[in-house]
Structure formats: C-alpha cells, structure tokens
Write a structure and sequence with these properties.
Length: about 240
C-alpha cells in the first residue's frame, strides 16, 4: 500500500472554473505526490464541480466569505488533516507550480518554517526586471515595503504575495481567523510574534489570467491604507480576535 502524501497544496477559488484546469494540471505534473484542496469561496459557477472532476478535494463555503476566510480555511484543513507540509497558490494561474516546488524544498530541508515567493526579491538567475510594474504600482509597492520594514525590522519585498510553503509548526498560526483586509501581512506579523523563521524567496510569476491587481487606482490606495493599519494596530487586532 502506498504511503499517504505528507504534502498538500490548497487553492482559494471564487468563480475560477475557467482557470482551474490549467492550475490543477500543472500541479499534478510538477507535484504528483501532493494532495490538492480547493477552497471554494461560495462560487456561483462550476468551480467546485471542475475541481472534483480533476481530482481535487473541495471544501465549499455556503456563501462568498472573502479571501481571508479562504486562506485561513486552507491552512486549517492542512493542519487538521495531519499534513507535514502545505503550499498555497492562487487560482488565477499567476503562480508557477515549479516555483512552489522550490519553496517546499526549502521548508522540507528545515531551512525555514515558511517560504514566501517574491516577485521583487533578488536571487541568482532572477533578474531585477523579471516583473516590471507600472509607475502607480511601483509607488504603492514602495509604500508597502517601507511600512513592512518599520514593523518587521527587515525589508520585505512582496508583502502581499499569495505563494507560500509552510511546515506543520506554522499551519496553526496561519489558520487562525483573519480580522483585517490584509491577511498575508497579518500572517507575517503573527509568524514574527511566534518566533517562526520566514524566508522570502525570489520567484517568477506570470500575469494573472483573470481578475484585476489589488494595486490599481482606488484599490491601491485602500490596500496601502489597510496594510498600514494592520501594521500599526496589530496588537489591537490580536486582542479583538482573542
């Protein structure tokens, strides 16, 4: 009898029936021994059906609850199901499976507890111009990076990256309900408070196949203000959650 997989990859998804087949096919080709869970965030299309047809386990919400609920649910499922390692990619096709595999290797080797893929971090074979944002996006990204540096005490290039690999120690920390509109940033602050090791790793990312960037127009302003609020009021947010 084959051993049960020790790794799971979860995908938060809301109305992603068109992009899911390519994402799931790539994961199966690159990480054939990993289980896959799709967190269906109350989709009104065939997201859940497509995921099941392609062999993924599906956890469906009865209504759309937002990305922060999907992220927490993914890590909670990984922890409660007893996996040793967990990866996360988005459903829009932006995150290459081979890059997630690199992050999982780092976590498996105990080089860190959490490895986060970054479009902007430097790394051998990863040129600075591999991802060239617009002027408005560069401005928003710069503000986020400065705010993260002040709060974390280190430079963090891509604080809203959705690609990550974590070990079993980090899963319960990242599975707690998020109370802010910037769950990735809230997770980084939790990890620091718990003394867990976080590495930011240079990766390639593709243009999203659907949807819009968070760092555009009014969305950019709202996201920057949300992140700064999380950084400033993190202790209050923790108290509120408790």
């Amino acid at each position: 009898m084959a051993a049960s997989p020790d790794t799971v990859v979860f995908i938060p998804a809301w109305n992603e029936e068109a992009s899911l087949p390519a994402v799931l096919g790539e994961l199966d080709a690159v990480l054939p021994d990993a289980d896959v869970i799709v967190i269906d965030d109350g989709s009104t299309d065939r997201t859940a059906e497509v995921a099941r047809e392609l062999g993924a386990t599906v956890v469906s919400f009865g209504e759309n609850r937002g990305l922060r609920a999907g992220i927490a649910a993914g890590y909670r499922e990984a922890s409660e199901r007893g996996y040793a390692y967990c990866g996360r990619v988005d459903a829009d096709g932006q995150h290459p499976a081979d890059e997630l595999a690199r992050l999982l290797v780092l976590v498996r080797s105990d080089a860190c507890d959490v490895a986060i893929g970054s479009r902007f971090a430097e790394g051998e074979g990863y040129d600075d111009d591999r991802y060239v944002p617009s002027a408005s996006r560069r401005f928003g990204i710069g503000l986020l990076q400065s705010a993260m540096h002040l709060r974390l005490g280190r430079r963090f290039h891509d604080p809203t990256s959705g690609m990550a690999a974590v070990n079993a120690k980090a899963m319960p920390v990242m599975a707690r309900p998020y109370v802010s509109g910037a769950p990735e940033v809230e997770a980084l602050l939790r990890l620091k408070a718990e003394g867990l090791r976080v590495d930011e790793v240079a990766v390639h990312m593709r243009e999203r196949s659907s949807g819009e960037s968070k760092l555009q127009g009014k969305k950019a302003v709202k996201l920057v203000l949300t992140v700064v609020g999380v950084l400033v009021f993190f202790r209050w947010l923790r108290h509120r959650r408790a």
